[in-house]
């Protein structure tokens, strides 16, 4: 039985949509930490824990993160407490780099879902998104680099209307 579901996908690929669908089925979301600004409609403690770079650096120094990566100049991370959560099946959202921190033994207890609709769909979705401090081109370029040769998943969803 998988104890952790990890959703991996480019910006605009449907990760949050899938996370919310799983929450409707009583899966618990492990809220990530980030130093990026909140987007319109995002709620502190529900979508992310929005922290300062200074707080993130302090958490890194204190060894509080299971995984922490820099993406587009912002830090994103999962705390050790979140990773070790044993209260039901947990849902995590990670990047390929974040997923690379999962050791072989823990990976056996994970089910990784790669949301991967066509590039045109992603571009269309990102163009509609208000991304403070970021641009469409920069996000697409960063995702292209981050997902190059990505194959560490159990199932891939390419249907944009899942």
Question: What is the topology?
Answer:
Elements: E1 4-9, H1 15-24, E2 28-29, E3 32-34, E4 48-50, H2 53-61, E5 65-71, E6 74-79, H3 80-83, E7 90-94, H4 96-99, H5 104-107, E8 110-115, H6 119-127, H7 136-146, E9 155-157
Task: Give short descriptive properties of this protein.
162 residues, alpha/beta, 25% strand, 4-stranded mixed sheet, 5-stranded parallel sheet
Q: How would you portray this structure in words?
A:
With 162 residues, the protein is an alpha/beta fold. It has a single domain (4-157), classed as Guanylate Kinase phosphate binding domain (2-Layer Sandwich), CATH 3.30.63. Helix content is 31%, strand content 25%. It has 7 helices and 9 strands; from the N terminus they run βαβββαββαβααβααβ. The protein has a 5-stranded parallel sheet. Strands 4-3-6-5 form a 4-stranded mixed sheet. A hairpin with a 2-residue loop joins strand 5 and strand 6 (74-79).
Order of helices and strands: EHEEEHEEHEHHEHHE
Radius of gyration: 15 Å
CATH topology-level fold name: Guanylate Kinase phosphate binding domain
Beta-strand portion reads: 25-35%
Biggest sheet architecture: 5 strands, parallel
- Counting DSSP H or I runs of 4 or more residues, the number of helices is 7
Terminal CA distance reads 24 Å
What CATH first level would be assigned?
Answer: Alpha Beta
**Proportion in helices:** 25-40%
Q: Could you write a compact summary of the structure shown?
A:
By secondary structure, the protein is of the alpha/beta class. The chain has helices at 15-24, 53-61, 80-83, 96-99, 104-107, 119-127, 136-146, and strands at residues 4-9, 28-29, 32-34, 48-50, 65-71, 74-79, 90-94, 110-115, 155-157.
């Amino acid at each position: 039985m998988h104890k952790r579901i990890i959703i991996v996908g480019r910006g605009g690929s449907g990760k949050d949509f899938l996370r919310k669908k799983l929450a409707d089925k009583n899966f618990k979301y492990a809220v990530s930490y980030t130093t990026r600004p909140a987007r319109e409609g995002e709620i502190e403690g529900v979508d992310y824990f929005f922290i300062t770079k200074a707080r993130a650096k302090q958490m890194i120094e204190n060894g509080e993160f299971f995984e922490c990566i820099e993406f587009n100049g912002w830090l994103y991370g999962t705390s050790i407490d979140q990773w070790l959560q044993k209260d039901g099946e947990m849902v995590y959202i990670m990047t390929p780099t974040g997923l690379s921190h999962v050791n072989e033994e823990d990976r056996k207890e994970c089910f990784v879902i790669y949301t991967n609709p066509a590039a045109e769909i992603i571009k269309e979705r990102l163009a509609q998104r208000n991304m403070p401090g970021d641009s469409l081109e920069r996000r697409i370029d960063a995702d292209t680099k981050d997902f190059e040769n990505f194959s560490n998943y159990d199932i891939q969803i390419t249907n944009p209307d899942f």
